[in-house]
Amino acid sequence: MTRPQPDPEHVCSTVVDVETRPCPRPKPPPDTDPADAPPTTGAESGEGATSPGRPAADFSCRVSRHGGVVRIDLRGEIDLCARPELAWAVARVRSGEVAVRVDMADVGFMDTSGVGFLWSLRERCRAVGAPLYLIGVGAQPRRLLDLVGFPVPGGLRA
């Protein structure tokens, strides 16, 4: 069977110029789940931990635990490249936590990757019975959370 050939006068040709930009942070090895990566310092003893193997220039995530309260300090831009660190932070929340506080005072930009992180964290907090508090949420992240109607059961504080 022969396919009919399109009339050259009615053919639309579209050229798309796509620029790809690699993430500025190194990716974890393919055989390593970021949630299983060990902290670089003593997070379990309450000293705090930073996300494993990540430079602090673009984004950093620090998790500390004091008296059953987990504090997640975020700094920089929360975008697609921050997902491994964010998954690592969600995995640090365990049963028996009293509360989870996310300090976003040093976050200037957040895209939907940040919304996804907060949604996962909210679900994790529900599973372990701990309220979630967002602290120091700047103007742009707050607008995005308002736009998507993100429910914060524990509260949203500036």
Automatic annotation (TrEMBL):
InterPro entries: STAS_dom (IPR002645), STAS_dom_sf (IPR036513). Gene3D superfamilies: STAS domain (3.30.750.24). Residues 1-10 have a biased composition (Basic and acidic residues). Residues 1-59 are annotated as: Disordered. This is STAS domain-containing protein. Residues 59-158 form the STAS domain. Pfam families: STAS.
